[in-house]
């Protein structure tokens, strides 16, 4: 396993999570529409702007959460020393 692989993987995961998080921030009304209640006092969307599909919002949520969770797991793997033995075994 090349030495640059784990930092490059963590960087790619961080960029994916960052892009998905920015997209979610730009589409907050669409995120609120998914989690809003249908009863009185619920969030009502304006019809002035085209909204993102439910699938796109769920995909962005999965990418955002999957990206940062994978970064944390990769960081734990690297910090525990298991990554060092994997790099040494490959060399």
Describe this structure in words.
The chain has 91 residues and is mainly alpha-helical. It has one domain (5-90). The protein is 73% helix and 0% strand. α1 (5-26) runs antiparallel to α3 (54-80). The longest helix is centred in the C-terminal third of the chain and has 27 residues, at 54-80. It is elongated and about 60 Å long. The model has no long low-confidence stretch (mean pLDDT 83).
How would you sum up this structure in a few lines?
The chain has helices at residues 5-26, 28-35, 54-80, 82-90.
Please describe the structure with a list of short key phrases separated by commas or semicolons.
91 residues; mainly alpha; 0% strand
Write down the Rg.
19 Å
**SS-derived structural category:** mainly alpha
The shape is elongated
**Residue windows where pLDDT falls under 50 for at least 5 positions:** none
Count of discrete alpha- or pi-helical segments spanning 4 or more residues: 4
List the helices and strands and how they pair.
Elements: H1 5-26, H2 28-35, H3 54-80, H4 82-90
């Amino acid at each position: 396993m090349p030495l640059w692989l784990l930092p490059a993987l963590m960087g790619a995961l961080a960029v994916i999570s960052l892009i998905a998080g920015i997209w979610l921030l730009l589409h907050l009304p669409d995120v609120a529409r998914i989690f809003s209640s249908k009863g009185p006092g619920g969030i009502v969307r304006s019809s002035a702007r085209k909204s993102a599909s439910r699938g796109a919002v769920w995909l962005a949520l999965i990418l955002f959460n999957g990206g940062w969770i994978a970064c944390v797991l990769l960081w734990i793997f690297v910090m525990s020393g298991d990554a060092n033995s994997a790099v040494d075994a490959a060399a």
